[in-house]
Structure formats: C-alpha cells, structure tokens
Amino acid sequence: MLKGKRIILGVTGGIAAYKIPLLVRELKKLEADVQCIMTPASCDFVSPLTLATLSQNPVYIDFWNKKDGTWTNHVELGMWADVMVIAPLTANTLAKMTHGNCDNLLLATYLSAKCPVLIAPAMDLDMYAHPTTTQNLEQLAQHGVLITPAQHGFLASGLEGQGRMMEPNDLVREISFFFEQSISLYGKKVLVTAGPTYERIDPVRFIGNHSSGKMGFAIAKSLLKRGAEVILVTGPTQCQLTHNKLTRCDVVSAEEMLQQVKEHFPTCTGGIFSAAVSDYRPAEMHSVKMKKTADELTLQLVKNPDILQWAGDHKKHGQFLVGFALETNDALDYGRGKLEKKKLDCIVVNSLKDSGAGFGVDTNKITILDSNNKKQAYELSSKDVAAHNIVEYIVKNKL
Ligand code: CTP
User: Fold this and answer.
1) CATH number at residue 120
2) I need a surface site. Which of 5, 159, 259, 351 has the fewest CB within 10 A?
3) Of the listed ranges 24-28, 69-73, 136-140, the one predicted with least confidence
4) pLDDT at residue number 378
5) What's the pLDDT score for residue 135?
6) Ligand 1: centre distance to CA 252 (Å)
7) What is the DSSP string of 192-210?
8) Distance in angstroms (rounded) separating the CA atoms of residues 222 and 22
9) 198 and 336 together in one domain
10) Would you say the CB of residue 189 lies under 6 angstroms from ligand 1?
C-alpha cells in the first residue's frame, strides 16, 4: 500500500520525537519515499543525521542552507507529497497551525501543502486535556486535517494519562489505512441534498416535513473524510458542519433546491440525494399573512419538480447518482421502482416500520439496492455509521 508513496514527515520538538527513527524505518521498509522536515526545537530530541540516514534523503530544517546559501522551496515540498504526516505534533505547533503562523519551514510547508495532512499529537496529559488544545484540534479537523488521537499511557513527565504519541507501528497502519480509505474520493466532487424543503403559504406559514437533515450531513461528513469536495444543498436545518472542502448552499423550497442542483450537479462526479423534498407546494404564495375568516380553508397545491429525476435525466456518463426512499410499506418494491424510474445507480431504502429509522432520530436501518440487481441490508446503526456504509458501498462498487 505504501510502495512509492511520497510522505513528508514533519517532526516537532517533543520527547516523542525519539520514536521517529523507528517510524521512518518502518515506512522505508514498506518502500515509501520519506522526506523529513524538522523544527529547530525537534533537533534537541532526535538527530537530523539519524533521520537523513534512515530516510536516505536530506533533512530540511531551515528556509535556507547556511553552507551554500540555497533556499529550500517549501511550496515544491508541499506539491511533491502524497501526504504530509506531522509526528509528534506539540501543543505549540498545533496552536501555530490553527492560526496560520509560519515561522519555520515545517509550518510554511504545512500552509502551502496541497496534499492531505495527518497529525499525531503528543504532549503531557494536562496540555492535551486543555480546552484550547481541544478547540485547536477541532479547528484543524474542520480544515480537513486527519487526526490520530494521542494515546493513553505513561508520559515522560512521570504522569499517566492521555497524551502519548501513537506508537510507530500503529501510525504506519494509520497511514496505510489513510491511503486505502481516506483518499479514495480525493479529487472527486460530490453533491449532497439534505434536510426538508419548506413551501411557503404566506410570510408566516409553510408546508414542511420532519426531516432533520442529520442523514445528509452525516453523508457529507463521510465524503469529506475520504477526501472528496462536497457541495451540500440543504433545506432548513439545525445541523452544522464546516470544512474547507465543503460548500454549503442553504435553500428553503424545492424550486430553490432544484436551482442549486442544476447549477452544481453538472460539475460533480456524482450526487447523493437524501433531502426530503415536499412533493407539492401551494399554487399561490400570499404576500401578506392570511387572516382567518371562513370556517374552512382549501389550499390548492401544485406538484413540485422532482429534483432527483432531473439529475437522473441529465446524468452524464461516469456520474453516479444515489437516491433515498423512505417508505411505510413494501419498501423494497417501491425502492426498486424508484431506482429504475429515476435512473439511479443505487437507492438507499429505509422503512418507517423499522424502529430507530426515519426522521429526527440519530439512528437508521438501511438497505441498498443497486442497478446491477444487488441488495445489501445493514443492521440498525447510528446515522454516521449508515453514512459510512453508503459511501463505502459507492467506493467499493465503483459507482
Ligand atoms: N426527491 C427529489 N425531489 C422531489 C422528490 C423526491 O429529489 N421532488 C428525491 C429525494 O431526495 C429522495 C428520492 O427522491 O432521494 C425520494 O423519492 P420519492 O420517494 O419519489 O419521493 P417521494 O416524494 O417520497 O415519493 P412518493 O411520495 O411517491 O413515495
């Protein structure tokens, strides 16, 4: 998995740096190409000569080489790499990364790197538990940085707790896993629809449904984890998600959702349509609040556009399309009918009959049907796990 992979290994000044020669050795055994960048402080913990010898590459520390006056091009280093791993990552460098400081070569390379970045924090337990550290890690996660959490155990301070850098062998496994999983959608752009749509009756009232948006947001998160760029077109929701590869388009009605889908779907590798779109909207939207006068009120409704059907009709060769079907009865039959009618590659069916599936809850029980007549049923799980299963299915079946 790591053969020929180009890895920048950034080393910062923490005691766990003593484990880095072992990490380099393991990566080299697996035939990865490793370039080390060290912060000046890390040289007190591990020798650049050791890392240069083991990596069979020069080690970069300064912006320029004092001996021959040559400049180290951090942009080129960042472009060269398939992944940048920063291990160990101290609280200090972590804080600088969140603020965009670049007072050393490692930070400048991080800021200019186009490749995915994976970090292995290591620090004393109190520093690791400090809210600032937690916030900084959350912020980096939002920027798309992949985090291998610090481990529990004995620390150099003599204390015991969470703060140890992941062991080199485990880190190698994480890096391999990353190449296997995390970049499986790198360079792909996926459109996701989420949440309900609200169809305005007047400035105060609307027709809507109970969709929370949780499933669509979980799918977006899962796609982002695998390196995809995501266009999230969402109806009104309380859900929050920020990520540097996420474009969020907030809409209210089905017609607004269709406009966004028409604009973005043609530029995407595929789409996952999980929104609970209102099938009908009021024929007329009253510009002022309707007053209660008569004892009965009849609202005339007109059919909304079927957004997924539009995407199926306009799907280009190579684009994948996934729909959802929430049913109360005969779920699989209805699901297969929709798969065919809407020209989908697969459909995620869930039945309101299954307890734990449906609107508002944090769990879901799904069955995936695809256009090759395959069917895969999953156990009841959290919406995050269901989202992972859907994305995994798309990747594995090369939809
Ligand atoms: N969908 C859509 N636009 C619509 C209606 C549905 O994009 N106007 C999408 C949903 O996001 C979902 C799938 O189509 O992926 C659901 O299809 P369907 O079951 O046909 O929608 P329903 O309105 O629930 O259909 P029915 O009421 O006939 O069961």
Assistant:
1) 3.40.50.1950
2) 159
3) 69-73
4) 94
5) 96
6) 16
7) EEESB--EESSSS-EE---
8) 32
9) yes
10) no
